[in-house]
Design brief:
Blueprint: E1 4-7, E2 10-13, E3 18-24, E4 34-40, E5 47-53, E6 59-61, E7 69-74, E8 79-84, E9 93-101, E10 104-107, E11 111-116
Parallel strand pairs: 2-11
Antiparallel strand pairs: 1-3, 3-8, 4-5, 4-9, 5-6, 7-8, 9-10, 9-11
Length: 117
């Protein structure tokens, strides 16, 4: 069982920055795990922001998210991150980390990001 755990959410003013962190509770990221960040705003569907492959660090972004969001991982800390800058009110959402391992996707509980205008 893989249990992603997110942290780093909170309240931030519009224009500010925030970095979210994802780790695996009681375990580690391994090999070709694919880590993804998603978000779900109130009344909207969950949408993917970016993905990163653990072993080689290759990254992909949803086009609409490119530019203000950066996904990266720290191999030695065993954490994946999502750095967000230029935050807007409409970025308010619950942000989720997921880990795809052996064709199974595991989800974290999410962390709330609230951007005040």
């Amino acid at each position: 069982q893989v249990q992603p755990v997110e942290s780093g959410g909170g309240l931030v003013q519009a224009g500010g920055s925030l970095t979210l962190s994802c780790s695996v509770s009681g375990g580690t990221f391994v090999g070709d795990d694919m880590v993804a960040w998603y978000r779900q705003a109130p009344g909207k569907e969950r949408e993917v922001i970016a993905t990163i492959t653990w072993d080689d660090g290759s990254r992909h972004y949803t086009d609409s998210m490119r530019g203000r969001f950066t996904i990266y991982r720290n191999y030695h800390e065993n954490r994946a991150f999502l750095h967000m800058n230029g935050l807007k009110f409409e970025d308010t959402a619950i942000y989720y980390c997921s880990v795809k391992r052996d064709s199974v996707v595991y989800w974290g509980q999410g962390t709330q990001v609230t951007v005040s205008s």
